[in-house]
Amino acid sequence: MKFPPWLYNLYRADFLRSVGLYVMRDHVVLVRMRKSFLRLSLAEQEARELPLGENNQQAISELTGWIAEDIREIALRAETGSRERALRQAMVSLLPHFSAGRDSLYVCVPQEQAVVHKVFLPLAAENNLRQVLEYEIERQLPFRRDEIYFDFMPTGKQGDKIGVYLFAIPKKNLAPILDVLGSFGIKPDGVETTVTAIANYLLFCRRDLSDPAAVVGGQNDAWEMVGVRALKGLKRNAELLFSHSLSQTDWSHGAGKDILQECLAGSPKLFGWGEVDAFLHSVSTNGELKYEDLVASGNQRLAGNGNIAHPHVLPAFGAALRGLREASFTVNFLRQPGTVEGGGKMLSGINAVLMGLLLICAVAWGASYPTKDEIRLRQVQRENKKLEVAVEALRREEGQLERARKEASFLADFDQRKGDVLRILDELSKTVPTNAYLSNLRYRSGNLEIQGSAENASGLIPVLERSPLFENVGFNAPSNRGRDNRETFSLKADVERPKEKASKP
Questions:
Q1: CA distances in angstroms from 260 to 269, 285, 490, listed in the order given
Q2: Residue 494 — pLDDT band, cuts 50, 70, 90?
Q3: Which of 114, 150, 255, 386 is deepest in the core (most CB within 10 A)?
Q4: How confident is the model at residue 344 (pLDDT cuts 50, 70, 90)?
């Protein structure tokens, strides 16, 4: 599903500060970043050298006269102690450049110190991947479970299996760093490798990336290659395609070239960082490979909010993105089962405030409709009261007009029928004998009904039949004779229409 840019920007809005710490064998790089709503800036970038001691094994052998092979463990302990002291001194000089209590801190270590392994598990384990990996990790990696920190990242279904990238690091490689930070009261929010840090940095610089891409680079004769593909969505997730880390000799000779050719075949875009030129020169067989410099891409993305000074800054930059909610990959060796990182939260504090304001506005907007309707209703009622007098007057005039129309219609109809009525009255006055009385007369559509009394009611029928105006004369109801020896009658008859006389030729 494609989301509009403004919705994605609103999801990213926040006010945060984050620190990325990249710990190499001979250097420590610190990057401090700040997010002000949507604007990201590079506030600090510091590097400290970790001086490597001399060959402790040879020095102790010369001092004591013991065989060098016999004092290897003593030399390793001395080297570890020397490295911890150097790291502690570097952190003392870096403490003024960030706030240990307020800034979130994420640590990045080189990929050569960790293991990245892709495994395939049954689909039934999809909902309990961590529990399954707890049992399977000793079969997949040459370490005991209590000797490593691990995390994982699903890659989706592949046939009847589900792919999982397994990230693991021996505790002995991470313990010196955690001990030094703990001595200053600093507890890292997360630890990851350059695999996810560089991938997050690339996806931050190139938000328009839609095709699969490969990132090549490294330092200290250890080169690595990572493949990523961006997935569209509100949270801008991504997919890790591959991850390879080999020494310079393995890349230049042996299977390194085949791996490179296979990875580049499926990743049309190539990005480089660190000692990428030496790497590509050693493995290129068909001419010089073209790549895009990640340092230049980062400076272009920051657009005046700080410039990246050195390629070694990039892994620390990518680790710091975790604390700014700008990371696509959230692998964390220190993750506890069931916990969710801040970068994985759906809503930040400012997002929650904006969402609350949006909900308040929506509720107010929805509640305004009944209020507006009530106001309009009252306005209409006031207008109707003003018009009631005029409407009542119109209704009275309309009633008077209707009565006048009925009277006019009656008079017009009576005017049309007055000729027939006069002829009927004239004929009855001539025909009916003087000893008969008419009490009621009704004429309708050529039919005549008469009621009255006479000495002999049946004698009226032939009298009326002889009239040229009446025909079909008969009783309409039975006649009754009263005490006065007179019969009441009700007669009906059809009135003949006068025929028009033919005009003479």
A1: 13, 11, 125
A2: confident
A3: 114
A4: very low
Q: In what order do the strands lie in the sheet with 213-219?
A: 238-247, 222-230, 213-219, 269-274, 292-293
Cβ distance 1 to 232 under 8 Å?
yes
The residue among 409 and 17 whose pLDDT is bigger is: 17
- What pLDDT shows up at residue 80? 64
Residues with Cβ within 8 Å of 401's Cβ and at least 6 positions away in sequence, in order, are: none
C-alpha 305/C-alpha 282 separation (Å) is: 36
H or E segment to which residue 448 belongs = strand 447-454
Q: How many Å apart are CA 240 and CA 327, to the nearest integer?
A: 13
Inform me whether the pLDDT recorded for 122 exceeds 80: yes
Residue by residue, DSSP assigns 374-385 as HHHHHHHHHHHH
Q: What pLDDT, on a 0 to 100 scale, did the predictor assign at position 263?
A: 75
CA-nearest of 205, 233, 200 to 4 is: 233
Torsion angle of the four alpha carbons 308, 309, 312, 314, in this order, in degrees rounded to the nearest 10: 0
pLDDT of the residue at 286: 58
Structure tokens at 361: 């506005």
Helix (H, G, I), strand (E, B) or coil at 284: coil
Q: Count how many residues are written for the chain.
A: 505
- The three-state DSSP-derived secondary structure of 240-280 is EEEEEEEEHHHHHCCCHHHHHHHHHHCCCEEEEEECHHHHH
Lowest mean pLDDT among 124-138, 330-344, 398-412: 330-344
The CATH number for 432-495, chosen from 3.40.50, 3.30.1360, 3.40.91, 3.30.1330, is: 3.30.1360
- The structural domains of the chain, with segments of one domain joined by +, span 5-346, 347-421, 432-495
- Top-tier CATH class for 5-346: alpha beta
CA–CA gap between residue 251 and residue 262 (Å, rounded)? 13
pTM of the model: 0.66
- What SS3 state is found at 108? strand
Q: Tell me how far apart the alpha carbons of residues 441 and 381 are, in angstroms, rounded to a whole number.
A: 56
Q: Report the share of the chain in percent with pLDDT over 70.
A: 80
Q: Is the dihedral of CA 134, 138, 142, 145 positive or negative?
A: positive
